[in-house]
Amino acid sequence: MVDFEQPLNLEHEYLLDRDCTTLSRHVLQQLHSFSADAQDLSALMSRIALAGKLIARRLTRAGLVEDALGFTGRTNVQGESVKKMDVFANQVFISVFEQSGLVCRLASEEMEKPYYIPENCPLGRYTLLYDPIDGSSNVDINLNVGSIFSIRRQQGEDQDGMAADLLRHGHDQIAAGYILYGPSTMLVYSIGKGVHAFTLDPSLGEFILSSENIQIPTHGPVYSVNEGNFWQWSEPIRDYIRYVHRHEGYTARYSGALVGDIHRILFQGGVFLYPGTVKKPEGKLRLLYESAPLAYLVEQAGGKASTGTQDIMDVIPDHLHTRTPLILGSREDVELVESFIADRRRQTEEQTVLTSKG
Asked: Does residue 83 contact residue 75 with C-beta atoms inside 8 Å?
């Protein structure tokens, strides 16, 4: 006989609630709204997640799939050799957003000009900027790689097809994040309301919330930089490296995959450096596709991102593929690097004054 007076055990609701916090649901919860703009942003993130799932599937089987690994034999607009996985991942993002009604343009470091989707333009007022596969040199040896993305509202009609409205500072981003392809596939994003991480559950085919409101430590032990370039850097960057070599408590970690290195620092603290060189002071990383989206994330997590002399989020590009030095991570660690740069500049200015006085 059933005892109808016995209260129903609802503990399972709390156990299931976390598993039910999908990416699209989380976006709507963050915005506290079901407005058209909120629905659009949720749908945008869902499409990005779909692109991540397709790329993750390809990477998982890369060694078994014909023409998945190696180079295509051509170079991109950056003058870099193009990997076959670069081409595949770039096309995935295009295919996912075509006929979505969400974005009018896609801009990628693999394409010289934005890719326009005319059928979306009457409705889709957003632009997706992305690096389809960052660290693609790691693909052939089965190490971590990632995708980086940024979402901006389209400003104006862009009738000349020059996308001049994208040549603005990073504060114009309305969302940014990355997808990390590793032992598990993770998507980390922000819409200006903190930084949140989702892990792909293959059994559900969904990205499920795994870490919420991530805060980067104010200081961390990791410094991540390619020290093979030591003698190509300017003197203040070398001064900083000498400093960490002489002091206990620092650990070098560098994988050659930007997303993987940033992911470590986001959770453990520290600093990532990709400085310019004496010959190429502008650095290697693209502002719109790499530096600005990651700066947006790190600042939302309480960290800092800098060129060494200017906040990354304040930098205005002069063309779609503008490059910039990048120093980002824990606030105290980034400010320490900046202090070495400022000290050298001050010394140079003082020496110049003394020289001019004879």
From this structure: no
d(CA 148, CA 276) in angstroms, rounded, equals 21
The pair phi, psi for residue 207, each rounded to 5°, is: -85, 120
Q: What is the pLDDT of residues 86-98, one digit of tens each?
A: 889 999 999 999 9
- Give whole-number Cα distances, 233 to 110, 226, 257, in Å: 27, 11, 20
Q: Are 153 and 125 in contact (CB under 8 A)?
A: yes
Q: At what angle do helices 23-31 and 36-60 cross, to 10 degrees?
A: 150
End-to-end CA, the chain: 104
Whether 8 shows a pLDDT value over 70: the answer reads: no
- The whole-angstrom separation of Cα 40 and Cα 45 is 9
Give φ, ψ of 98 to 5 degrees: -65, 140
Tokens of 173: 């981003």
Query: Does the pLDDT at position 73 exceed 50?
Result: no
Most distant CA pair in the chain: distance in Å?
A: 104
45: Cβ contacts below 8 Å, ≥ 6 apart:
23, 24, 27, 175, 189
pLDDT digits (tens, 9 = 90+) for 95-149: 999 988 899 999 998 899 999 998 888 777 899 999 999 877 777 777 789 999 9
CA gap 114, 117 in Å, rounded:
10
Is residue 83 predicted with pLDDT exceeding 50? yes
pTM for this model (two decimals): 0.89
Q: Which residues contact 93 (CB under 8 A, 6 or more apart)?
A: 51, 106, 108, 128, 130, 132
Q: What is the mean pLDDT of the chain?
A: 88
